[in-house]
Here is the input.
Amino acid sequence: MSIKTLAPSVTVRDPKGLKFMSIVEARYNKAQLSEDEAQRVNDTPGLSDLIGSWIEEHRRPNQFANEEVRTVYGYPREYKGSKPIEEQIEALVEICDGKVDPSCALAFARNLPDMKQFVPADALRYTGWFATLWDEALVALFPKETDRAQRYCNGVSLMLEKIAASRSFTNWRKGQIDTAHLRIHARTMQAMDQIALTQKGGILIIAGQLGIRHGGRSVRRAREVFVANEYGTGSLTGTSVVYTHPERLVRWEELDMDLPGDEFSDGGGGQFGHAPYLSFYDGTRFDAVVVSVAGGFCGSSSFFAPQ
Here is the structure.
C-alpha cells in the first residue's frame, strides 16, 4: 500500500501567510481606532468564526462552478498569434505622438524571459508576448491629471478613439469612461505595478492569452479559477492589444474578449457588478456585461506574471 504524502500547510510564517496578515494589518491600521474602539472590537465575539468562514469560502475554486457553458468558438483564422514585440511597441509609441520613451520596453524585448518558467503548461500554446500602455505613459500623455483613476480612464478613452480611427468601431459605453463607471480590479493593478517596477517605462510587456483559456466562463468564474500568478486583463491592456492586433476581432463567429481586469458600474452608483468586453458585430465593439453571465461566445483574457 502506498502512503500519500501531504504537502505542508501554509502558516502565517510563510510568504503567503505573511501577505494575508499584512492585509489584515493594513485594514486595521486604516481604521484608526481609538483605544476604546479597539477594545470594543477586540471584545466583540465572532471575529474568529468570521475569518474561519471567509477562509473556507475562498480556499477552493468552487464558487460559481455552474457559470460555465460549452463553447464552439475560438480565435478567427486571421489571428496568427502575437506579433513581433518590437512592432507592437512601435505602434503604441506612434499613437503617443513621441511623448512616451520606448527604450525600456525595447531593452526588455531583447531579453524576454522563458515563459515555461512561469506560464502553466496547459496555457503555453495560447500565450504570447503583448505590449501595453501603463501609468507612466499616461502621466506623459495627461500631465495635468493628478488622479490616477481618472488618468486610467483617460488612457482607455484614448485607445478607444485610436481603434475607432483605424476601423469600424462602436463604443456602447460612450460617456461612461470615467471613475464613476470604470475602475481597475485591485488584483490586476497590483500585478501590473509590480511588473512596472521590474520593466520600467510607460510601455510594459506581458505574457497573455486573449480569451480562449476561459472560453464559456462568466467573468467571476474565470477570476475564481485563475492560477496564483494569473491576472485579468483590463481595458487599457485589452485595447492596446486589439489596436496592435486588429485581426483578433474580425467576425461575429469568434470568441470575443472579456476584460476581467476591470470592473464596471452599469449605473455609476457604486455597484461594480459588470466587466468590460471587446467583441465584433458589424465592427469592433466595446461594452460591459454582468460578471455572472456565461456565454459560449466570450472568454476572459488574462496575463501571467513571473513569480
Notes: The chain has ten helices and eleven strands. The chain has one domain: 85-302. Confidence is low (pLDDT under 50) at residues 1-7.
